[in-house]
Predict the structure.
Amino acid sequence: MDKDRIDRIIDKHHCEASSLIQVLLEIQSENHWLPKEALERVADKLQVPLTRVQHIATFYKAFSLVPKGRHEIHICVGTACHVRGATRVLDTVQDLTGIRPGETDLDLKFSLQTVNCLGCCALGPVMEVDGKTHGKMAPSKTAEILKNYE
Amino acid sequence: MAQINTPAELEEFRKGILSKRDPDKPCVTLCSGSACNASGSTDVAAALFEEIEKQGLGAAVDIRRTGCHGFCERGPIIVIHPEEICYFNIEPKDVSEIISETIKGHKVVEHLLYTDPATNEKIVHESEIPFYKYQERIVFGSNSKIDPKSIDDYLAIGGYSALAKALTGMSAEQVLQEVKKANLRGRGGGGFPAGTKWEGSRNAGGEIKYVIVNADEGDPGAYMDRSVLEGNPHSVLEGLTIGAYAVGAHEGYIYVRQEYPLAVENVNMAIRKAEEYGFLGKNILGSGFDFIVKVHQGAGAFVCGESTALMTALEGRAGEPRPKYVRSNVVGLWGRPSVLNNVETWANVPLIINNGADWFTKLGTESSKGTKIFSLVGKITNTGLVEVPMGTPLRDIIFKIGGGIPGGKKFKAVQTGGPSGGCIPEELLDLPVGFDELTRAGSMMGSGGMIVMDEDTCMPDVARYFLDFLTDESCGKCVPCREGMRQMLKILTDITQGRGKEGDIELLEQLAETAQEAALCALGKSSPNPFLSTLKYFRDEYEAHVKEKRCPALSCKELINYYIDPSKCNACTTCARKCPAEAIIGGKNLIHMIDQEKCTKCGTCFEACPPKFRAVTKISGVPVPPPIPEEARTIVRESKQK
């Protein structure tokens, strides 16, 4: 991520220290992860210690300090999905991709993440791949869906 | 758009909008909340616009993409006004039929109607469907009437009239007293009276005060706040502005989860429009009152729903709570008096101002007034958002509105209050819902999540699930929460995986007591609730796990085995073909067996086995029966014998 793009985001928030989380969120959303240089630049421009930037970047779940795969798999493990068998779906996806929640595979193909409720409980168990929702999931359906992603 | 400067101008403008709207003109409303979008509403909308154009009806029909209607189970939903014809589970291919039959031909499309499962009759109108019939949708009902992106829609249903009334017809003190008299209690969790909270801030010294909307809805399985914010953002803004006036605040924040992109988009748009119309900004409606609102996106931390943690996050720091020797309505955001209420609480405020506290207190129980929106999910026939008067029995919500448990299964418990709440068993189903009633039963109202569980749900596993969630979300500041919960989770995991030992339950009880007494914030103090309430009502399940290594609900993976009953297996190969682990041995006319070594217990065979055979079963607490002799495995079909 180049410096100009980071600066543009920081300037939008008028370099205010209280906007730290909002600035990081925007960088995360554009770049999908937070490289070290970006954190340093933010600390520098907002005049907050780098330790605090690190604190924020590790405290909140929305941030990633490592690159993400080309496709992001979110498995909903909210209560409604849980009682409908989300764990079994998650187990199968872990077997298929070889990664656990929070991890990215070596080919940078998939990143796997559990989420705590996507708010479409009528469709549970729910799996989301790159923002597309797949409802009423069953372990036997997962392979079919993941096959479509290269 | 010129600014609206007085209440008279607002009424004039409203008349102008209404005069341009013909109540008899057909209007197709399509539910476009996040849940319906996930089930294909966006594609339906595209088909709808295309079809209207194709059939040359562009000027004769209005299309309105509304927020969530609540009946998510049957989404996407189309309602055609003025007749209020309701169609469910709409797919793009149904659209042309709807337009040509209903809009042009004034006929009802039978196969898209709701079928009452009890009587098998088709129901045309929304108000006659059991799911809607028993509700009282004072807050949530407007969602289905307006396009959340259109401020004119909100004005057309009387929007901002409460703001005009409060700002120009009432003193700040009068507004405060009205809300106090209404006994509006916080809809986000604690149930603290909003009026009292406001009064504390109003009486606190200092020039600068804040009002904040808590839209950090973190309870898994609860999404009513999102739906209100997405579907009717102006109602929240109007309530917030009225609250700001009562408290004397000139700046407001909306703290909304970053996971709710549509809510963020709609509320940002609503703020822009409200500023443009003069409902936010300087000298609102000529009253001399100034107020601005900013949106702050959360970055994913459950603990930020807690008041002091949320305010710390608003300041741009890590959202950790602080002890509340002084309440945040006196010393809150940046050390100033700050009123924090949840989305639904704010959305109730305009209704109270417009209709009066006496109207509001007619609904509800002695100590809980008004209505509450519940998110009815889990093992329930009609998943969706349900608004009922406080005091409605749980049984009515689950069976009359929710339609009971699907698949002929038996109800076991309902979990209310999110991770800090508890499970309520069948014998307490006649409990009226209310803040104090639920607390007495060992659960709580929380933000209104209501997760229904059937006989297949394992209660120790539910407790483990919530503790897992809370351990992950603990901010780590205090020891009872950070360390205590980790140990509780470890013991519960052992119990559900068959490594439980004598004394574990008692040890859990001790840890629970410590957390309740000594944790810093509500997250930690209430963290043992899911365990304690399931233990209170389902102790036998815990004991079966510990003593017999048996899961009575046949749910805990480590304690069950899948087994094919040879007397029932018809060797149809359905399960064998679907098994992802290739663990099923057998072929055509050869009774199947599961290789327990290879089996990953994914349950695919259990679901795949045709219901007429039901040969695949789950067993727990007993060893898997030995395989039948090889010579007995061949099935000789009668038809082949002849």
